[in-house]
Amino acid sequence: xxxxxTNDTVYQQMKESSSASWKRLVEDFQFRRFLVxxxxxxxxxxxxxxxxxxxLDTLLLQYPNMGFDEHDGCTDDEYDAKMMQSHLxxxxxxxxxxLFTEFCSCSxxxxxxxxxxxxxxxxxxxxxxxxLALKAFVACIRRIAIDIGQHSLSKAKRVSTLIHFxxxxxxxxxxxxxxxxxxxxxxxxxGAGEKDTHDIKExxxxxxxxxxxxxxxxxxxIVPYRNGxxxxxxxxxxxxxxxxxxxxxxxxxxxxxxxxxxxIEDPDIRQQMGVYLLRCWDYVGPExxxxxxxxxxxxxxxxxxxxxxxxxSKALEVAIALGGHLDGDTPIPPPPKAADSFDDLPRETLCRxxxxxxxxxxxxxxxxxxxxxxMERIAKSGNEAGLFGNLQKISQALLSQLGIGANFEGTFxxxxxxxxxxxxxxxxxxxxxxxxxxxxxxxxxxTANYIFQSIDASLSDVxxxxxxxxxxxxxxxxxxxxxxxxxxxxxxxxxIGTVTACAEEVDDVGSFAALLLRSCKRFYGIHxxxxxxxxxxxxxxxxxxxxxxxxxxxxxxxxxxxxxxxxVQEKSNAGDGKLLADSKIESQGRIAAQLVxxxxxxxxxxxxxxxxxxxxxxxxxxxxxEKQVVASVxxxxxxxxxxxxxxREREGGxxxxxxKKEKAAGSRKRKxxxxxxxxxxxxxxxxENEELVHDDDEQNTSIQDDESMSNDEEMEEGSLQDxxxxxxxxxxxxxxxx
Length: 738
Description:
Elements: H1 2-27, H2 29-44, H3 58-62, H4 76-107, H5 129-144, H6 155-173, H7 178-183, E1 188-189, H8 198-201, H9 206-219, E2 223-227, E3 230-234, H10 237-243, H11 247-261, H12 267-279, H13 309-322, H14 347-356, H15 369-381, H16 390-402, H17 424-430, H18 442-469, H19 475-499, H20 511-532, H21 544-570, H22 582-615, H23 619-627, E4 638-640, H24 641-652, H25 654-674, E5 691-693, H26 696-704, H27 706-737
Antiparallel strand pairs: 1-2, 2-3, 4-5
Helix pairs in contact: 2-4, 2-5, 4-5, 4-6, 5-11, 6-9, 9-11, 9-12, 10-11, 11-13, 12-13, 13-17, 13-18, 16-19, 18-19, 18-20, 19-20, 19-21, 20-21, 20-22, 22-23, 25-27
């Protein structure tokens, strides 16, 4: 009995000591940060912890083929890599819920969030603990979403399972949040929200619908929901982070959505996720009482919307990517024997037809109420074919926020009401504080760069099709590919025509305007080749698809591009009292000249096709096609004679001086032989700064005819040499007189 009591006492003391040690470790946030960092290094593969023989199932890494007789046709290295990926997926499924729970628990402590120090945590090299934990959880999602070949679960199923386990773990550790997490998957928005989903369920796999249901709790905007007979205002996790100005955590939450929604195969669901993401920044007044997922109550009186500018810029990037870049604005040709034009198709048929090609179709009810009336009115008019991709909506909001430039006033007939196109993310990005010495915020330039990347990617696709696929095709196949390329160009022309008018306000040095000019140069070059591909059947240029593209180019895109050329030419400052570098001005001028040349090549191709139509007897089609040629108003190159002479002297260098000495010696010898001063060949022009104005037709002829250009250069060089010779003779004459 005495020994038993002693053992019980020792066991009790050990238990108390263990509990005290466990409590100290839990309260030690440095130790918790250490665990989160090691988990992040393990999942991302940035540490030596994943090397063979170091803390990661040493036995299995030394004998990876243990228990397997066949490699399914792959080498030992490939098989080992697959085994490693499989183990990392298992580690992600185990660590992910713990990391997400750590993020939720740290979000209640303001000192462990980006709010610590009045938002100054973003300037520190050490991330807040809540941000670091959420970053590690996003790494887990990316790890399990990779392609691993033959896996028992699909990528969408793996991601939805991980998020479901993470939410369940967080609900268990934080019981007050359980009802809020369970509310969203079965809830329905009221008003202009999600009225029904029958059109989005058709043809969608159960795995995609399950992942969509799980993600609703993360990206649901603050809107009224119907809960039985009551209407309550609820907001998802991202909306709550934005409302409390937790900018760094909101940025990581956008990465979470991008990683999770990218595995969804249905394009409509991906675009819908992007729209919901943008709406998480919508402002809700203080008169509205709403409930968030975590129920945070941080004092954010010191911060405003500018503190969420980085996350808003990230949200715009993710929304553009989930919308398929230009996929949502590309009017795919109608199926054969279904309708004469794109606008005549029923909405259900159009949705099924676009899903066949992996293109999304906008659902008007996903957008706020102030957008729906404007979108429905345009769709009924037949001008936009009912397509409103995320990129187009963001471009319209950017134009409405920044305003139309002074040189673009005559290119706009009517502007939509600002309330019908504005997006809160764009307003926050445009109103952010610019860096010191600049006038434009850095986030605005990042958003413009995302738009340019989407345009450039679309043009790359069309360029590949036009250069590599059109030449061997004939008949119906050729017409189908031509229509697809034309639709792609039409989508790009709409975006270019929209953002061009506000390009000068996007950055201080005009980089975005130069990028747009470069894209337009590619656009006109591709269009010229596409037009020439109709040489066998010129009437294909008068189809509905081509008419829409040429009308868009003639009425909106080309006039605004010409105005942009004038704007770039007039721009000379870069920010607060700074001037543009000479190299920057030279680069912009070179791009502008190339753009005008490609534009003229496109017009020449249209005129060739119109001549063929005239030869075939189609006078009306020929006249309409000629009207689509927009005259260039920017060919105003003026070259001064003294500038040419100075340039040639710089290029000639020492050889020029040697030639002048030889000329001077020859003139002196002739003078001594003749016994007097040599006669002047001709009178020199009084004004050396006389300008030589070259007309557009002469410039085009000089570009197209290499031989004539070389002859002109020789004649011009000869005249300059005569002038130099006259100078030498005049100098010698003056010397003799003295």
